[in-house]
Amino acid sequence: MGCIVVTIDGPAASGKTSVSRGLAQKLGWKWVSTGAFYRGLGYMAQQTQVDIKNEDELVALVKSDNWSVQMNDENTNFIFNDQDVTEFIFQEEVGTLASQVSGYPKVREALLEAQRALASEDYNLVAEGRDCGSVVFPTAPLKVYLTARSESRAQRRAEEQGKDLESTIEAQKQRDQQDASRKAAPMQVPEGAHVIDTSELTLDQVVQKVEDLVQKHIN
User: Fold this and answer.
1) Average pLDDT score over residue span 114-129
2) Is residue 219 part of a domain?
3) For residue 219, what pLDDT is reported?
4) Model confidence over 159-192: pLDDT tens digits?
5) How far apart are alpha carbons 97 and 189 in whole angstroms?
6) For residue 136, what are the domain limits?
7) Which CA distances in Å does 16 have to 67, 123, 129?
8) How far is CA 75 from CA 43, 91, 98, 156, in A?
9) Domain of 65: which CATH number?
10) Which of 26, 74, 135, 218 would you call most buried, defined as having the most Cβ atoms within 10 angstroms of its Cβ?
């Protein structure tokens, strides 16, 4: 039995993490956030004082044996130097570093093998990120792209991280600009993806919409 992959992409705070996790739990599938790879790399660079602008040094970090990713239907855990640092890599400042390192073609290529390897086992997978459907798993039988109004996304992120709305909006604008303008795999709607605007929907409503698509297109 081969691995079935459902991809869920979208900009920051569009709901893709919560939706993809909820979907994986309902289906009993594994769940991976490919963004954890870039966040983890940004965190490692920060901790080891690697120059964030040095692509070759970043690639060397990727190829080191100091990190790994562990997944289930609830979390994508990032392990660095035998320590689970997941709680640190999802801080907003690390997200900014992640957006920077993700702009390097050699870095993306180095991480691609590790990301795709997660779909090589005998289980089904829900994968979320910014290029899962377009680059990482371009042949996935179901691709979903979540979007939301900028104000809605900023409000969600501010509430999640306990930060003020104004600074969150500025950080989000910077992140969106970096993701959309990078030369290597810029954020885009994957070909053939189902686009869902989550601005006025609850988490449960979005999960149900995606689950309905799974039942229609895969089962």
Assistant:
1) 88
2) no
3) 64
4) 766 777 777 667 766 766 766 666 666 668 899 9
5) 23
6) 5-212
7) 24, 21, 8
8) 18, 16, 18, 19
9) 3.40.50.300
10) 135
